[in-house]
Amino acid sequence: MPNFRYSARSRDGASLSGNINGADRAAVVAELQARDLLPVEVVEARVTEGAPAIVSFHSAKTGAALFGGVGTLVEAGVPLDQSLATFGEIAADPALTAVAGRVREGLRRGSGLAGALAAETETGKGFEPLAIGLVAAGEATGQLVESLQRLARLYERRQRISDAVRSALIYPAILATVTVLVLALLMAFVIPQFELLFREGQKDLPFVTRVVFGASHLLGKAFWVLIPLALIAWLAVRRLLAQADVRLRWDRALLGVPVVGSVIRGVESERIGFVLASLLGAGVNLPDALRYAADVVQNRALSALLTESSLRLRAGERFADVLANAELLPPMFVRLAAIGEASGTLPVMLTKIATLYEQESESRIRRMVALVEPAMVILLGGLIALTMVAVLTAIVDLNRLTV
Length: 403
Known about the structure:
This protein has helices at residues 25-34, 60-75, 80-90, 94-108, 112-119, 129-141, 144-199, 207-241, 244-255, 260-281, 286-296, 300-314, 319-324, 331-343, 346-402; strands spanning 3-9, 15-21, 38-44, 56-57, 125-126. Residues 47-55 have low confidence and may be disordered. The protein is mainly α. It has 2 domains: 3-156, Type II secretion system (T2SS), domain F (Receptor-associated Protein), CATH 1.20.81.30; 157-403, Receptor-associated Protein, CATH 1.20.81.
């Protein structure tokens, strides 16, 4: 999808600029208007020599540190410009110091904090539309400190979940690596020695033994071919999943996988709940909040659902009616959100939903890892046992022939 560079103004007159993907210029203009912005200029971005393209967003760690630190200083009464300068001086990470310096320069040019954050995309790494939108809403409503604190909490929660998943998968990953290495050593070095022993002693080896020896032959002769083939297959899968329709079907299928689908639903529900609660608390209307949430979630099927829900809300439907047919979201999420809308406490209820699913996701991740660990041990033991059975069966048959 083409990338467009835009400049626009918010309701309070603040200048915003950045990049956005869209089918064409008209679609980008419609998207900006849906975000309650007045488009000033929309042109297709061209990557020229010396001008870096947008390749990624700043990490959750960077966002949590920057918004949390600056928000604390502003809350203490330090002017925003000075807060950015002070944060840049005390930041331990040179990259954070550089980011704070660039944002401060943008602020001094009169673009406002949201505009300065949007201009960060010119460096090749930008801030998410969610961060820019939440800051813009805070500037428009006079709740900048609250918006910065909400962003810091959002990034902290995201970093905490990411760290929990990464930590939980370390041991299974090590175990899987050991399994592959042990099997490769058995097949490449141990099994061929036994094959030499049986080659002259017996012509008709047992079926299991022939299978194991055949696998050993394949690994020994085709090892240097299998590696590039695996790399080509991996690149082909990545290229295939880069296609929007294929990725959408893949992500939808993942939600239906036992255990894995439940974990994904829980993690994404926590993310959606907290993002919506933060945006609504900052004064962003619900349709726009859903649009921003759609940019944040990783699962494309859920992202498409949130985008569709935003359009249906703009068409006049109630949030509860929109969620009633949202089969991809957990039933508890749908019920609690409907109750929150009916009682006029939707932001509070969404925060409770996020907390509920955060705890549930951590529990499910622990249970999933608890299942993976013994499964890997059983798999490793089973494959080694199969190899030993193949060798021992051949030895027993060889002894019978010699008796």
